[in-house]
Amino acid sequence: SYQTTDTLPIGISQSPDGNSEARLGSQTPVSKRDHHLARNRLAASKCRQRKKDWVARLEQQYRDLSAQKVALSETVMLLRAERLQLKQQCLEHQECACEEIRTYLKKMLDKQLSVAGLG
Question: InterPro entries per the record (predicted)?
């Protein structure tokens, strides 16, 4: 992978041909290990940061969805109350001569009877 000298651990510089591994061949086993450990620390740090970022995004998504759920639950409650009010108004007008209301009430009654197993 391509790395700039900005991302390499302190004390390690990029060789002119771009091959930092070739330089490591001349290093002692201790300095190779130090280089490996430094790169590993950097990778672990990046991994921990990515995980923190992911968790933060997930928590924000949870808060957003929770707020949306509350808002939708309130909307459902209001719509159910409105539906009940409209049904009540229809029942209050069952003696009227309005054919649409009579048709609606008949369909509603037929539906209730079929659900109850009486129709």
Answer: bZIP (IPR004827), bZIP_sf (IPR046347), bZIP_transcription_factors (IPR051027), Leuzip_Jun (IPR002112)
| Higher pLDDT pick, 9 / 98 | 98
pLDDT exceeds 60 at position 10: no
Identify the three-state secondary structure at position 111. helix
Strands (E), 14-114: none
Number of domains in the chain: 1
Q: What's this model's pTM, rounded to 2 decimal places?
A: 0.54
CA 40 to CA 33: how far, in whole Å?
10
Question: Phi and psi of 54, rounded to 5°?
Answer: -65, -45
Residue 26, domain extent: 20-115
Tokens linked to 81: 């109350």
